Amino acid sequence: MRLERRHAVLFLAIAAWNVVTWATFAKNLAAAHAQGEVRPAGYWVAHSVLIVVNLVVAAVLARLGLQAWRATRSRAGIDA
Q: Cβ neighbours of residue 29 under 8 Å, at least 6 residues apart?
C-alpha cells in the first residue's frame, strides 16, 4: 500500500485528537480521585489502563503519520 499525504494528515490528526481527549480524561479522573470519589479499585485500574493504551495508540499513529509525511516528501523530490 502506498501512503499519500492525506493519509499522513489523517494519522496525525487522529493521534492529536487521541492525546487531547485522553489527556483531558486523565485529568478529570485524577481530579475525581483527589476529591475522594468512592469507586472500586477496578474502576481506577481499568480507566488508567485505557488511558495508557490509547496514548500508546496515539504514539503509533503519530509515528506512522510522520513516516508517511516524510515518504511523500522524498517521493516528490522535496527531501531536505
A: 44, 47, 48, 51
> Shortest CA distance to 4 belongs to which of 70, 53, 54, 63?
70
SS3 36: coil
Whether 79 and 73 have beta carbons less than 8 Å apart is answered as yes
- What are the tens digits of pLDDT across the range 22-47? 999 999 999 999 999 999 999 999 99
Contact 66, 3 (CB under 8 A): no
φ/ψ of 3, rounded to 5, equals: -85, 140
